[in-house]
């Protein structure tokens, strides 16, 4: 793992990613809150007047993903026009408002609004933070710094799984709002704008100042960094591009195919459906291990996997972990498929109660150790600089809209076709992902943005 030139780069990246802690909490929230809202757990503590229905549960869960599918397009444009920092601060305020609504919600419609607004913020997190992180990092620590997003997301999901079952939904709102409030103060007052944004706006003096603050380097070194950025822009078009340039440029089309493919397969593993209904999923397995304990274990495994990955991704590269991740996911999902197939055939599986829990743990380990965080790292690296925000916005929108579809359809399809068919479908998609990574995804480890474009032009 590369060492940051200055600890301030690490501080700036972590400060920006405080928003991802609220996003991670939001993704784990439905697994804990839905049983409380529909009266299955602690009906006396339900903040709304009557238990929610299955359809209402589906909307409360999926509106987060619907909201997150809307914001990447205009968040990317805002990041290019207003700046990365200003855009994140605006959506930070939106996320704070969403959490306040959750705190005081007393009807299901309040949760609809809160989850949608929170989704808008989550979409901006995925669209802008990887871009900002890649732009302030260096070649030898870009992978590690981009993995901070995954670390804090999984950490907050772990906290949600551990704390959520024992507190009220209102208290969960207070916890989720805390990192957002800290972000608005710390990031807003201390952390500078991306130097790439300043170069894009032809403000070289501000770009040099940003580099000097971020990396604690001399004026000469900052000037060299600015010249490198300008040369990278000239390698593409030298001017601000339009949305259509995303499809006119051969390198941009290749980058779009690679990143959209990775995002498709990321969601086609079924991760959002499984995590959103995690406790219910464990109940369906018939395991003797309590579902809330199993959910906590999943959160812990997810956090550890991303943390380990962050320490070694800049040493071994992106492709190797994507291949390992896909291989492990095939085993895990096939194992769940076999288990549910035997369960449907009414085999006695009492002695194998641990198998579904083990398979889910393997699933989470392999997802968090590869296909979960690494597509976001590659997304921040691979697009030509002149169409970077267009490419990032489109791919992020595609990913989050597909996650919305999976989240809405997962409980419906499991009720209609059964969990067995869903597991085998996800296993088949993951097999295709392995083929895609092996034949189409280039290695970006240790490469400058300019070198990555040269690789794409030759591929």
Task: Walk me through the structure.
80% of the residues lie in helices and 0% in strands. The chain is an all-alpha fold and 459 residues long. It has one domain (7-191, 237-458): MFS general substrate transporter like domains (Growth Hormone, Chain: A, Up-down Bundle), CATH 1.20.1250. The longest helix is centred in the first third of the chain and has 29 residues, at 108-136. The chain is globular, with a radius of gyration of 22 Å.
User: What is the CATH-assigned architecture?
Assistant: Up-down Bundle
Number of helical stretches of at least 4 residues: 21
Number of beta-strand segments: 0
CATH superfamily caption: MFS general substrate transporter like domains
């Amino acid at each position: 793992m590369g060492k940051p030139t200055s600890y301030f780069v690490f501080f700036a990246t972590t400060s920006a990613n405080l928003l991802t802690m609220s996003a991670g909490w939001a993704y784990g929230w439905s697994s804990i809150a839905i049983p409380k809202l529909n009266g299955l757990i602690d009906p006396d503590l339900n903040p709304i007047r009557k238990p929610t229905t299955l359809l209402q549960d589906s909307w409360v869960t999926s509106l987060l993903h619907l909201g997150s599918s809307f914001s990447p397009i205009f968040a990317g444009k805002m990041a290019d026009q207003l700046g990365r920092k200003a855009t994140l601060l605006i959506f930070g305020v939106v996320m704070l408002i969403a959490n306040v609504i959750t705190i005081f919600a007393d009807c299901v419609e309040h949760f609809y609004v809160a989850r949608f607004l929170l989704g808008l913020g989550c979409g901006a997190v995925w669209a802008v933070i990887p871009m900002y992180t890649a732009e302030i990092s260096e070649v030898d620590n870009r992978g590690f710094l981009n993995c901070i997003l995954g670390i804090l997301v999984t950490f907050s999901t772990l906290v949600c799984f551990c704390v959520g079952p024992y507190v009220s939904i209102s208290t969960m709102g207070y916890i989720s709002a805390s990192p957002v409030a800290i972000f608005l103060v710390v990031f807003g007052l201390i952390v500078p704008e991306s130097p790439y944004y300043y170069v894009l706006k032809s403000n070289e003096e501000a770009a040099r100042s940003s580099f000097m603050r971020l990396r604690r380097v001399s004026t000469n070194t900052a000037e060299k960094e600015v010249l490198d950025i300008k040369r990278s822009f000239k390698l593409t078009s030298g001017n601000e591009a339009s949305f259509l340039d995303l499809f006119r440029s051969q390198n941009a089309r290749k980058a779009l195919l690679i990143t959209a493919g990775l995002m498709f397969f990321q969601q086609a593993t079924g991760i959002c459906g499984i995590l959103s209904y995690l406790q219910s999923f464990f109940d369906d397995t018939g395991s003797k291990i309590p579902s809330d304990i199993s959910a906590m274990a999943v959160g812990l495994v997810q956090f550890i996997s991303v943390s380990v990955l962050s320490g070694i991704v800049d040493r071994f590269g992106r492709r190797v972990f994507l291949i390992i991740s896909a291989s492990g996911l095939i085993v895990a999902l096939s194992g769940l498929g076999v288990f549910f197939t035997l369960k449907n055939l009414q085999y006695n599986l009492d002695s194998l109660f641990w198998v579904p829990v083990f398979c889910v743990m393997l699933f989470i380990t392999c997802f968090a150790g590869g296909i979960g965080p690494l597509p976001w790292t590659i997304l921040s690296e691979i697009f030509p600089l002149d169409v970077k925000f267009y490419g990032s916005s489109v791919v992020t929108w595609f990913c989050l809209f597909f996650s919305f579809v999976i989240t809405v359809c997962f409980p419906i399809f499991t009720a209609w076709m059964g969990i067995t068919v869903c597991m085998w479908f996800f296993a088949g998609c993951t097999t295709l992902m392995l083929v895609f990574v092996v034949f189409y995804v280039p290695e970006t480890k240790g490469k400058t943005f300019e070198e990555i474009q040269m690789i794409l032009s030759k591929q």
